[in-house]
Specification:
Layout: H1 8-17, H2 37-42, H3 47-66, H4 73-98, H5 106-120, H6 127-154, H7 159-177, H8 187-193, E1 196-197, E2 200-201, H9 202-220
Antiparallel strand pairs: 1-2
Length: about 220
């Protein structure tokens, strides 16, 4: 869009009809240019992560100086399960972003899965019933993924708009099913999810192993490269 074409209506129409990714295959970086050591560090894929890690360490030191309870097993035992939950969602979102897409319906999907679980993984269920409920929760997540795929690939709606549609729909369904908080999860499921080795949740350990394995796959395998 140029000049007078740049207006709200044309921008929205272009976003709704966008179905192609920008061609980056023709952009080639000259191999004859040599970068200095500092330039190589700044251009490294790991540099943004290193900056983030530095910020986390600094904030952790400040928190530990202000609050004596920060660096305690109890605090880590409470925080690491939350980190693990967000970490698994981040790993899943990374797959989408690596192929040039985006999925903004992840947050409402998490809420919907909790709501569905409050109906199908209840206190009065047997172990078999509990795992059947887990399969139902997984099936709901897969169904949402299929809907997103259909909107993006088949109907050729841009990923941002398509997942905004599912974002709104999922949020509405969750509110219809549970207008107010309710339901009690099966204790056996809570024991599995919150299982720990000392104060470190097993879910967090699995997240770290998964993240390292996927990083190795991304950098060392032909499919990842």
């Amino acid at each position: 869009l140029v000049d007078d074409e740049v207006n709200d209506r044309n921008i929205t129409e272009a976003a709704l009809k966008a179905s192609k990714f920008r061609d980056t295959q023709s952009i080639k970086v000259p191999t004859s240019i040599k970068m200095t050591r500092s330039e190589k560090i700044f251009n490294s894929d790991l540099f943004p992560g290193a900056i983030l890690l530095f910020a986390i360490v600094v904030l952790g030191i400040i928190a530990a100086l202000v609050n004596p309870f920060y660096l305690t097993p109890r605090n880590f035992g409470l925080m690491l399960p939350l980190i693990a939950t967000l970490g698994f969602f981040a790993v899943a979102q990374q797959f989408v972003m690596m192929v040039g897409g985006i999925d903004i319906s992840v947050g409402p999907l998490a809420s919907l899965l909790v709501v569905v679980a409050s109906f199908v993984i209840t206190v009065d269920q047997s172990i078999i019933g509990m795992w059947f409920g887990v399969l139902i929760v997984v099936a709901v997540a897969v169904l949402v993924g299929i809907i997103n795929w259909f909107l993006i690939v088949i109907l050729e709606i841009t990923a941002l708009i398509a997942t905004l549609i599912t974002f709104t729909a999922i949020q509405g369904i969750a509110l219809l099913l549970r207008p107010l908080p309710g339901g009690t999860f099966n204790p056996a499921l809570r024991e599995v999810v919150t299982a720990k080795i000392d104060f470190v949740p097993i879910s967090f350990i699995l997240l770290v192993v998964l993240a390292i394995a996927l990083e190795f796959f991304l950098r060392k395998s032909k499919q990842g490269i």
